[in-house]
Amino acid sequence: MLLQTAPAPGAWERLLAVLKEWDFAVFLKINTVWTGAFGDFLMPILRDQRTWYPLYAFLFIYVIYKFRWKALPFIIIAGLTVVLTDQVSSTFFKNYFGRVRPCNEEALRGMARLLLDRCPSSGSFTSSHAVNHFGLATFIYITLKPYFGKWGLLFFFWAAFICYAQVYVGVHYPGDVSCGAVLGVLLGGFTAWIFKKYFNFGNRKRGDLTTASPTV
């Protein structure tokens, strides 16, 4: 009688196993080793979306002041960008992959730290914070690049800090936020393309720091 044995894992399965091992290792470094009292205080605040409300408010006030009624399509599509990124991540990716968050992972029990009051019950992949913030950062950078120039890159640093905080506090793996960032850039680029194709603010005239020539 031939002995029945489980089939050897294929290349794809081995690759996923290696990536998962690396993800766990980097997560534990960020969550338990590269830590300190200041980080333990700052990171839960940094990843709280309410912390960034003043930045959004300032941005919308700036756009309204500069472009008047032409700011309305920008605000609407910026809002749609947030809705799109959140739904794609939360409704599709989290439900499809069903990855357990590190704060709920049995293999990490007793090792991982959770710096929040509770561990969210939703899936871990992808990080909706990462998708949302990178999507909005991409939309803002592309649509307002003629006015912000290289300073617009700061929106990506802001999104990256939030992603790092998600890992630091123990609710996401590095792979969750990295893939979420890529997804956010793609979705934000798509909504920015729509805005520039059908609305746009136009290009700032050379030497003119206060006015633009919007096109509709």
UniProtKB/TrEMBL annotation:
Keyword Transmembrane: yes
Phosphatidic acid phosphatase type 2/haloperoxidase domain boundaries: 74-192
Transmembrane segments: 74-93, 151-169, 175-195
Matching SMART domains: acidPPc (SM00014)
Keywords: Membrane, Transmembrane, Transmembrane helix
Superkingdom of the source species: Bacteria
InterPro entries associated with the record: PAP2/HPO, PAP2/HPO_sf
Protein name: Undecaprenyl-diphosphatase
Origin species: Taibaiella chishuiensis
Organism phylogeny: Bacteria, Pseudomonadati, Bacteroidota, Chitinophagia, Chitinophagales
